[in-house]
Each structure stands twice: as C-alpha cells, then as structure tokens.
Amino acid sequence: MARYTRHFVYDPDMTRGELSTILSRMRHSDRVLASIESKQSAAKSRIAASWRRSYEHYGLDPTTSRKQNIATDYELRALRDDASDLLHVARARIDQLFGLVGASGCTVVLTNADGYILDQRSSDADKGDFTGWGLRQGANWSESTQGTNGIGTCLAEGRHMIIHRDQHFFSNNIAMSCIGSPIYGARGELIGALDVSSARLDQTEALNNLIAATVAQTAKQIETETFRAAYVNERVVIAADTSADQSALVAVNSDDCIVGATRAARKLFGWAGDGDLKPVAATDLFVGDTDHRGFNRAEKAAVVKAITRADGNMSAAAKALGIGRATLYRRMKRLGITRTT
Q1: Within a 10 A sphere around the Cβ of 306, how many other Cβ atoms?
Q2: Residue 39 DSSP label
C-alpha cells in the first residue's frame, strides 16, 4: 500500500482554533491509513474493517475531503415516491424520536436502503450546521460515498451502529457522533435506516449508548408497523414468548397458514432472511403435528373453536365443522372435550 506524503503550508492569518482543527484532521487520516496498512486491525475491530472496506472496496481516500452526492429535487421526489409506504409509517415515529433528542442538539434522519436521506428533523437553530456537514434531505450517506459512518455502515452491515467522532473514515466528519439502526420491510428486506446524529462537544459514549437503545427501539416499531400495514387482511401474531423480541411477528391467513414474517421472526425460526415465505401451517409452528398427539391437539383446538363460535350450539358447531352432531359428540369424547371446555 502506497504511503502518502503531505505538505502543510502554514498560514500566519490562521487562528489557533483553525490550526488545531487542521492538525487534528491530519492526525486522524494518518491513524486511518496506519490501521488500513495493518493486517491484523481489520480482524480485531469492526471499525477498522469498515475503514479498510472504505479504502479498498470503495476507493475512498481519508486524506481528501469527502465526496458530496446530493440528489436533485426531481430525483429526491422519485426516491420519496418509491419509499412512500415507509415514509407514511415512519413519520409519527420520527417526530416522537425528535421530541426526545432534538433539544439536545441532535438531528433525526430517515434514509432509504441506498443511504439517501428522505426525511429529517432538526431544530431551526441547528439546521444550518447539519446542512453544512452534509446532513440534509437528498444527501447520500452510504458507506461507498461517505466511508465509515452511522448511516452507511449500519446499512452495509445490516446492524445497529454507533460511530463516535474519530471512528468516522473522513476527518471532516470526526466532530459528529452518528447512531444508526437498519429498518427491514415486510418481506425481511432492508428498506432503510434511522439515524440520530449530534456534533455536541460534550456528547459522551455513555449518552450515545442511551440514544442508541432508543433509536433501535424506534426502528423496530417502524418495522412492526410496516409489517402490520402490509398484512392488514391477515391475523398478525407475536411469534415469540414474552422474553424474546416482540418484533418477531407472523401473518396468518384464513386457512391458518403463515404467509408472512418479520425479519426477527425469520431469524427466530431459521427461515430465509428475506424474500417470499413458503407458507407454513400455523399449527405446525405453534402446536406441532409431528406425532399423533400433535394432530389431536390441532383437532381439539378446531373443535373447541367451532363450539365457542357457535355459543355452545352443538348443531351449529357440527355444521361449521362439516360433520354430523353424533360424530361431533364422539370426537369430543375421544379428545376429552366437555361442554364447558
């Protein structure tokens, strides 16, 4: 790997603050390059792995200014139209999140899966600063454009990310802390990211961790609401017990077949992470029918449900099950069902 030789020309009109900023950025880019040159660093640190990816895979140079990739107004409208369902569901959640963090000098942004900022909340006092740093609607913050950052790296790795100050790839991003969470769609596909960014000098890593938990929770809420909106005609059931991820949802149709699942549910049951879901009988998942007892449990559940729906009218229950009343009584006796079950 080639080493860079840089020449710094001192300007006597520089303020001490400007000189300090320049020297700090130079030290940061040197540290990034040293990490990239190390064969062990990428294996030991996800941040170092992202730095190497930014340099080798995307061809970015930490010694230069970051590239700007801003969508035109026409392009931004098209991007927002493509993500209209996500924007509709996320709007209230973004407002709620900004209500929690906005007063502390943070901005909240929502991006699509390619890292383009589609929606944003900033206070009037902070908006100019964030725009100056490139955090504005239409800006692309993918890792391929901005290197290691809270939005792009969380999209690249599909996981929650905290990129604190000098963990960024480009030195002119090191004043910021960026906290991003991926958002997955109704078919388990990556559809965007939610990010909270701040440039407060007193922003600590402990505060970042607290904000990160809120960002992650909000992203999960957006996911579950997106899923429910997509399967509005099916029953949506929490697939996990109370100790597990409550965003593990499945959609069950009128034939009691599971026809959809959130990313968390797919992970829970070992299904494909995204794409079409092969229908699964709900009784197979929640009751189990791998043996005779499983069939009995499923049959018992169906009989009890029919009797309950018929309000105890055995003739009506038998008709709903497509059997005679005498047959219904025989099944009830075999399955241990009483009229009061």
Answers
A1: 19
A2: T
* CA-to-CA separations, 93 to 113, 219, 224, 225, in angstroms, rounded: 18, 9, 12, 10
Which among 188, 115, 125 has a CA at the least distance from the CA of 156? 115
Q: What tokens were used for 14?
A: 């520089």
Cα angle 248, 253, 259; round to 5: 55
**Residue 321: its pLDDT value, please?**
86
Which pair of tokens denotes residue 125? 């006092």
Residue 304 tokens read as 């009890």
pLDDT, mean over the chain: 87
pLDDT tens sequence across 221-236: 999 999 999 999 998 9
Residue showing tokens 């970051």: 66
C-alpha to C-alpha distance for 11 and 189, rounded to whole angstroms: 51
Is residue 184 within 8 A of residue 263, CB to CB? The reply is yes
With cut-offs at 50, 70 and 90, classify the pLDDT of residue 39: confident
Rounded to whole angstroms, the Cα distance separating 336 from 331 reads 8
- DSSP secondary structure, 171-211, as one string: GGGTT-EEEEEEEE-TTS-EEEEEEEEE--TT--HHHHHHH
Q: Considering just the CA atoms, what is the radius of gyration of the chain in Å?
A: 27
pLDDT exceeds cutoff 80 at 158: yes
